[in-house]
Design a protein that fits this description.
alpha+beta, Conserved hypothetical protein from pyrococcus furiosus pfu- 392566-001, ParB domain, 4 domains, 6-stranded mixed sheet, 18 helices, elongated
């Protein structure tokens, strides 16, 4: 049933039609992709853009363009929707040409548009993040990220200029006061978007490290301890306190910073290791102040390090830091991967190989590996061991297979550490090859662990 409301052109009319009475013609889009948010939006707001309909000689109304809107309106239970109706001209190919033109030339809404819209809803109309999320059928996390971007002139400008995604722009907002970090993130987003998460995490870790170094130096300064540059292991004059003992002390008994505080050579430096920032206390002239080498009887290392040895040590330290950063990104990705309802197509092969060849790792993981898998599957760090059993009781066969895969992945993941990239084995290579095949972008240090 139709009701003519307005003549819009000589070739057609704008009418309100019953979506359930329309005939969906052949469509070049084979998948209507009616996600719940789209249907909910149609239910709340109606069809905002009229569909294109052709009236056949027998009065039947055939949808030319607007398949998704029509089907969503039917599912949402709308009584009528706006439609631009034209009479059939006998050219059946015209329908496909119209569909092609509508889909091919439609400009998708970009994240810069979403940021601008959310900013306007918040600032001009006073809507809260929760209200915006509810009324736009958008996740609250997305709205919060958009508001973070909108609150940063730097992030908003970078997103607009380089068309960054909302997630990328939100990370830029984190570093708006660091020009070099903004440059690095922008270049990565444009040139190597697959590495963006790893780059962002390395920058976060570097910022945390720099903050820790500043705090350590300030603490030493306030305590009146001279701060010096790090000393080398072949330094002839200065030595670390843990390598020294007093002349009246028993062999092997070291000197504590507290006991050394009154020595004229008392000093310290701040060092960064793979496991964090540490304060190292030294005596700047240990022989002159009467200390002895605590390990004088121990075999020597054979002399100063060569340049090659120093370079290798620097490489190990940097890759160990990179591993820690990559581990954070990888485990965040695995937590999202665990939410899938079905496993990847080759999951059965991976599971079979893990059980046949990787039983050592599966057994070694034990409680920690199971706890890691439980956290990924439930989103809770303290869900308890029985949580997975509860999930399996309600799972479909496809979901159950994916849960089994997550348990196996957690077992392997729990066995990884900073030594993994230096000594990759068959299980490690298979693990990272599988993750890459399932969509995870490997960091450079993970590519080493994979065998590249």
């Amino acid at each position: 049933m139709t009701s003519n409301t307005e003549a819009t052109a000589t070739h057609g009319t704008l009418e309100h039609v019953d979506p359930a009475a329309l005939v969906i013609g052949a469509n070049i889009r084979t998948d209507a992709d009616l996600d719940p948010d789209f249907v909910a939006s149609i239910k709340d707001l109606g069809v905002l853009t009229p569909i294109n309909v052709q009236r056949q000689q027998d009065g039947t109304l055939v949808v030319l363009a607007g398949q998704r809107r029509t089907l969503a309106a039917v599912e949402a239970g709308l009584a009528t929707i706006p439609a631009y109706v034209t009479d059939a001209n006998g050219d059946e190919a015209e329908r496909i040409i119209r569909q092609w033109a509508e889909n091919d030339h439609r400009a998708a809404m970009r994240d810069t548009h979403r940021t601008a819209a959310i900013k306007q809803l918040a600032l001009d109309f006073g809507l809260s993040a929760a209200q915006i999320a509810r009324r736009t059928r958008t996740s609250k996390d997305t709205v919060t990220a958009a508001l973070d971007v909108a609150g940063s002139q730097v992030a908003e400008a970078v997103q607009a200029k380089y068309d960054l995604t909302l997630d990328q722009a939100a990370v830029v907002a984190e570093f708006e006061d660091d020009k070099e970090a903004v440059k690095t993130l922008t270049a990565c987003a444009v040139e190597h978007p697959e590495a963006f998460a790893h780059t962002a995490q390395r920058l976060r870790d570097q910022r945390t490290e720099a903050h820790a170094r500043t705090e350590a130096i300030e603490a030493l300064t306030q305590a009146g301890v001279p701060v010096i540059e790090p000393i080398g292991y072949d330094d002839k004059k200065a030595k670390r306190l843990h390598e020294l003992r007093n002349a009246d002390a028993e062999a092997g008994e070291g000197i504590t910073p507290e006991a050394h505080a009154q020595c004229p050579g008392h000093a310290a430096y701040v060092s960064t290791r793979w496991d964090g920032v540490v304060t190292v206390y030294v005596c700047t002239d240990w022989r002159g102040h009467g200390h002895l080498d605590r390990y004088a009887q121990a075999p020597t290392s054979g002399g100063p390090q060569t340049e090659e040895q120093k370079a290798e040590r620097r490489r190990v330290i940097e890759n160990n830091k990179a591993w820690r950063s990559a581990e954070t990104v990888r485990r965040e990705w695995l937590a999202q991967f665990a939410k899938r309802k079905t496993a990847p197509k080759d999951a059965a092969t991976f599971l079979a190989q893990a059980m046949a060849e990787g039983t050592y790792l599966l057994n070694k993981a034990g409680e920690r590996g199971h706890r890691l898998a439980t956290e990924w599957l439930t989103g809770k760090a303290d869900a308890g061991r029985g949580a997975v059993t509860g999930l399996l009781a309600k799972a479909t066969p496809a979901r159950a297979q994916h849960i089994a895969l997550v348990l196996a992945l957690a077992a392997v993941e729990d066995a990884t550490d900073v030594h993994t990239w230096r000594n990759p084995d068959t299980e490690t290579r298979r693990y990272f090859t599988a993750l890459e095949g399932w969509g995870y972008a490997l960091a450079e240090v993970e590519q080493i662990a994979k065998g590249q």
